[in-house]
Every structure is written in structure tokens, then in C-alpha cells.
Write a structure and sequence with these properties.
The complex is a heterodimer of chains A (about 110) and B (about 110). Chain A is mostly beta strands. Helices cover about 0% and strands about 50% of the residues of chain A. In chain A, the strands form two sheets. In chain A, strands 1-9-8-3-4 form a five-stranded mixed β-sheet, with no helix packed on it. A four-stranded antiparallel β-sheet of chain A has the order 2-7-6-5, with no helix packed on it. In chain A, a hairpin with a 4-residue loop joins strand 5 and strand 6. Chain B is about 0% helix and about 50% strand. Chain B has no helices and eleven strands. In chain B, strand 7 and strand 8 form a beta hairpin. The chains are: A mainly beta (about 110), B mainly beta (about 110). Chains A and B meet through strand 4 of A and strand 4, strand 5, strand 9 and strand 10 of B.
């Protein structure tokens, strides 16, 4: 199972764009890069997933360079409700272990 | 909307006891994964079941075992509980278990071992 490394914490202000970078140097060919969001006392919630280049959905964008050794989650115009822990993982059909995540704190 | 439910919500056991946690997958999902999340850490993969068969296991001892039933609900059993087993136990279901299938997590069961 590929190990991922993320910053422990980040602070931002409402309305700003937030970029969280994840390192996954030993990612396997079959792994997809997946990001989850978790609020206290809740299970993780899927945000976005990608294999290569750029993926965008209604809540976030995911940038993955050609070597796939890192990825960046971009959250446009964050609000207070985006305060949560964000996990990056090398996803292989659900058989993946999460790292310790990045605690994002959005301030007014 | 996830639709994954877990029971019980909270549980307190003593060291050496056995515990069974239950998970009801989202309708139509045939794959379930179980995770252990210690306080302040990310979820750690325990094992996955696909159509009632174990389909992958993380670095957990054999006293962690599971079952998946024909209706795709599942159980996590832990024998000989240790203090370090205190954690939030999460289950997650997915539609088919293929590579890119999205996992939907339940709210978890908080287990405290005294």
C-alpha cells in the first residue's frame, strides 16, 4: 500500500483558494489518487479522484503531474464549513490506508 | 447521501472480551471495507469483503475477523480485546469493488476498551 505524505495543518480565510499538496513517491500503476474530507465524529466523504493530469468537479480540482509522485487538491473560495481534515490516498479498489491527513482551518 | 449505517454507535468493553460490530451497506453495493481510526490518525485498512469472500487484508492480526452476508451487510469481530483496540471503526461500501469505485463511509462505531 503506497504511503502518502501531507502537511499536518493549514490555515486559510473565507473566500480564498486553498491548495493542499500530497506526496506519494511509491504510487503503483493501478493506484488512483483520491481525496476525502472528514468532519469530527463522521466517516470520510469522497471529494475527488484522478489518475493523471487535471480533474474538476463541482467542489474541487485535482492536479496530478505526469510522474504521479504528487498531487494537489484545490478548493476554490473556501467557507467556514470547509474546516475539516483532508486525506489523500493512493486508492486501489478500497484496499488503501489513509495517512494522517491535513487539518484545514478556515477563519472568518 | 451515503446510506451506510453502523451499529452500535458507541460501545464499552473490557480487556479480553470479544466484540461484534455491524454494518449495513448502501443499497446495491456488494463490496465492504472496514477501517480502524485511532484518535488523531487516519483510517487504517483492516480488510475488504466482496460478495461474501475476503478480498484483501491490511496489517491486522487474525483476532480481527469479518463476515459478509448474502444481503451484503457485514460484521467485524474482534477477539481478546486489547486497550489499543480503542478506536472509531468505520465501514465503507462500494458498488462493485472495481478500481475506481467510490467508497461511501458510515458514521462509525466508537469502541472503548477499559
Amino acid at each position: 500500500l503506497a504511503k502518502t505524505t501531507q502537511p499536518i495543518s493549514m490555515d486559510s480565510y473565507e473566500g480564498q483558494e486553498v491548495n493542499i499538496t500530497c506526496s506519494h513517491n511509491n504510487i503503483a500503476t493501478n493506484d488512483y489518487i483520491t481525496w476525502y474530507q472528514q468532519f469530527p465524529s463522521q466517516g470520510p466523504r469522497f471529494i475527488i479522484q484522478g489518475y493523471k493530469t487535471k480533474v474538476t468537479n463541482e467542489v474541487a480540482s485535482l492536479f496530478i503531474p505526469a510522474d504521479r509522485k504528487s498531487s494537489t487538491l484545490s478548493l476554490p473560495r473556501v467557507s467556514l464549513s470547509d474546516t475539516a481534515v483532508y486525506y489523500c490516498l493512493a486508492f486501489n479498489a478500497g484496499k488503501s490506508t489513509f495517512g494522517d491527513g491535513t487539518t484545514l482551518t478556515v477563519k472568518p | 447521501e451515503t446510506g451506510v449505517t453502523q451499529s452500535p454507535t458507541h460501545l464499552i468493553k473490557t480487556r479480553g472480551q470479544q466484540v461484534t460490530l455491524r454494518c449495513s451497506s448502501q443499497s446495491g453495493h456488494n463490496t465492504v471495507s472496514w477501517y480502524q481510526q485511532a484518535l488523531g490518525q487516519g483510517p487504517q485498512f483492516i480488510f475488504q469483503y466482496y460478495r461474501e469472500e475476503e478480498n484483501g487484508r491490511g496489517n491486522f492480526p487474525p483476532r480481527f475477523s469479518g463476515l459478509q452476508f448474502p444481503n451484503y451487510s457485514s460484521e467485524l469481530n474482534v477477539n481478546a480485546l486489547e486497550l489499543d483496540d480503542s478506536a472509531l471503526y468505520l465501514c465503507a461500501s462500494s458498488l462493485t469493488g472495481v478500481l475506481t469505485d467510490t467508497q461511501y463511509f458510515g458514521p462509525g462505531t466508537r469502541l472503548t476498551v477499559l
